[in-house]
């Protein structure tokens, strides 16, 4: 078995319906990924281009030497190599952050039709099942790592070694005299996976020598259950969607049982690419769904996710993208566009629309603090901006992120919502219209 690890037929069979552009190996420099790259380069009979990607997390003092090792290896084997540098955040789980950022970096180099190959093997799968059990996961968690999955961008993530043991890979590496690096962090039992691998699994293996295959079989059965049930949950999710903003209708959610609601919320969060809550956090989320008085703002937070309820809708938000904007920004009349953080503001002259600004007056962009009043077009007199936002149905977390246009210290426009009643352009007057869009969006809001 160690001579070939897999036959060509066994390797290619799961991909027989796929149209493949490139093979791409995630190369850490460890024995598993080096063996996979060698297998692809020298054993598999393929005419498709092969590339490798190495992610440098900068977590170890030897990280740069690992990168140098991968560069040298790919030069010797004549394989193009991409290097991805990532900067780890200061807070949160090191393991979770490293995994998330690693895959983000890898997928940024790939396009539709590429196959990402990772060297996860049977022992990795068994460890994943045990970790999911200890976290109290349901069938989807116990399904562990799928053999293959296609991303929204059309990249196929394929794990060809899930039926191959760690021992087989090590024997293959020894047979072919493959040089590789050893990550000393794999010996640190402070990490859950290492604790299982080094202290728990050896005891299990003594009592149940085939534990890895048994757990892998359980993962496969769980995956079949998920595959059968998921279309049903998607139907329920579709029925619970609100009409806009990728939100959920809270009334429809509250009509479900707690089990059903939990399944729908997990599916929705996964669809959004957001971190899933723990069981305790999910119970808090369910309490939020079933609460009374939907018009007030309530929320549950975990990691970088904020689950918010407002006006009978449930929002799943990235905490970093709802932080209040602050400051005063001078916008010269000579500039038609203006950038602040992740938004682009634009103004355009249109006959009979927008505001009449004397002599093309300069503007100042501010954001809501407290106590602002505004005389919106169509209203009698000025009103607290807070009340206007409530009437317009603006969720609380968005209110301090909406640009306010001031001219001569007077609030004249709330971008995307209203202009000042006394400054509207008549049909025969040239007015100024303000637009806003996020940096990653092509849609203007005026």
Write structural notes for this entry.
This protein is an alpha+beta fold and about 450 residues long. It folds into three domains: about 10-220, 3-Layer(aba) Sandwich (Rossmann fold), CATH 3.40.50.620; about 245-320, 2-Layer Sandwich (Uridine Diphospho-n-acetylenolpyruvylglucosamine Reductase, domain 3), CATH 3.30.465.60; about 330-440, no CATH class. The protein is about 35% helix and about 20% strand. The chain is built from 14 helices and 20 strands. The chain has helices at about 10, 30-45, 65-75, 95-105, 120-135, 140, 165-175, 190-205, 210-240, 250-255, 260-270, 280-290, 385-390, 395-400, and strands at about 20-25, 50-55, 80-85, 115, 150, 155-160, 250, 300, 305-310, 315-320, 330, 335-340, 345-350, 365, 375, 385, 405, 410-415, 420, 430-440. The strands form five sheets. The chain has a six-stranded mixed beta sheet. A five-stranded antiparallel beta sheet has the order 11-14-17-18-19, with no helix packed on it. Strands 7-10-9-8 form a four-stranded antiparallel beta sheet. Strand 17 and strand 18 (about 410-415) form a beta hairpin. Helix 2 crosses helix 7, helix 5 crosses helix 9 and helix 9 crosses helix 11. The longest helix is centred in the middle third of the chain and has 30 residues, at about 210-240. The mean pLDDT is about 90.
Output the keywords:
446 residues; alpha+beta; Rossmann fold; Uridine Diphospho-n-acetylenolpyruvylglucosamine Reductase, domain 3; 3 domains; six-stranded mixed sheet; five-stranded antiparallel sheet; 36% helix
